[in-house]
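User: Second chain of the day. Same drill as before.
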Amino acid sequence: MSYQVLYRKYRPQTFEDIVGQEYIVKTLQNAIKEHKLAHAYLFCGPRGTGKTSIARIFAKAINCTGENVPCETCENCKTFNEGSHPDIIELDAASNNQIDNIRDLVNKTYLSPMMGKYKIYIIDEVHMLSSNAFSVFLKTIEEPPANVIFILATTEPQKVINTVVSRCQRFNFHKINKNAMLERLKLIMKKEGYPYEEEALKLIIDLSDGGMRDVLSLLEQALAYGAYDLKTKDVQKVFGVLSKEEMVALVKALLEHNVEGALNLLEHYYEEGADLEKLLKDLIVVYKDILYLKNDAADLLEILSKEEAQELSQAFDTTSLLEAIDVLFDTLKNAKLTKEEIYPYIDVAMIKLSNIEKDRTAKKSEEKKEAIVKEAAPVEVVQEEIKEEESKSENEIEERPLNIIEKPLEFYLAILKKATREEKQADQVIYERIADLQNDLRYRLYYEALKDSEIFADDQEAIIFCFKSELLARQLNDSAFNKELYFFFKNEFKIDKMLYAIDNITKAKLIEMYRHLKDYDLDNYHVEKYEEERSDSFEDKLRDFFGADKVKVED
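Assistant: Same format as last time:
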């Protein structure tokens, strides 16, 4: 007997052979068992997920006369397996998509079954039918003869006209679970008697993108290269996949801002035949692994070990990881859209990735310097800022109500005093809706500005956001941007409140002050009265808060 390729040799013949798609199999089995068959079914899903195989098994089971359907022993099952059953007709719509093909099919539906109880038509890639062919088919699929069943299969259900879809029972096939595929491959390798490394099987499964037919084709190719002894290094060589060590070396070069080293590694991998699209996808997974570890989700790691992810995570913060993943996704998307050589896009992406962390490091250093300077600043500087704020005229404040500068702690304390749980809960619901707008280019800027913040407190007139860093808080307090954000909240969510930002250090001070709220006279610090003249005792409050020996009041 001539050699038979693996995906044909191990094509499922019964429902028990199906890998994945459990809910679909169970639904179809119950329909047969209870004699409640529909007249038309639509199987939708990615290639290689079992649509046509299940359609054939279902058709065979419908006409099976045995007890455990399909029994494989009755005359109907045997005839079908031999490919000669007269009542189960398969049609490839990709090559039989014209009106005459469908008209011929429709005319034959009125002939009685010759051998089985039902005449069953399996139409593969049904979305390829022409519009005229669909028109001829529509009436028949709406009211077919009582002993006719249609099973339609497609990888592109959006191209099937709605009037046909609405007349079918629709089943959505999903990509097959990796663990289920691994067990299936182990069984096949055992039956064939081929030695293998489990890591090699896992790598082939990753390359298959959830399709059982694809995974068997890839397996056969790798087996042929390795003389039917499956090794991980052979799979990497055949399909141009980088090893974990090569991926980590590339990421480390980027972390060290070694652009030349990263580009040399990339060029080397390219010359060795690496699949650059796969490289991009694997880089995304590596960065995601680091992100998972930083967010206490180590069980989700796919490529890196916990120790490797831990080592790399020390050089990243969450924001830089998300930026890096965005760069990789954009590179992958742009390369696919242009359909050009992907190498130049990855070249530029390496430079971007290196500079992301470099810029982040520079920002951290600058923030640290600002924090040191601010902590060291004498209290008279704070007093001068307060006097400068007091010197602004009421008219100027009315013209620019959102021209926010740094506020004294008592100002925020006044808001905190009047804040309520109900106001915060109501605004929190709206605040969380901003995440839903992140993919809208009109609102992405506001999402980015607020994504690392939380609502600290709010009353009927103001909201205080809290950020981890002073730099981010200053950005929101900036006059022009604050005004823009104010109108975004007002127009989009009907929230007409002043918006302020503080950092974690200020938050801690405010909480401590709130515990001693009775010591503060906050009447002149209510939001709407902020620009009014302060009480004469304000210097005393400064001395009380900062320490009398540290306060110098100038005339």
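The chain has four domains: 6-172, 178-239, 244-360, 379-550.

User: Great, on to the next one.
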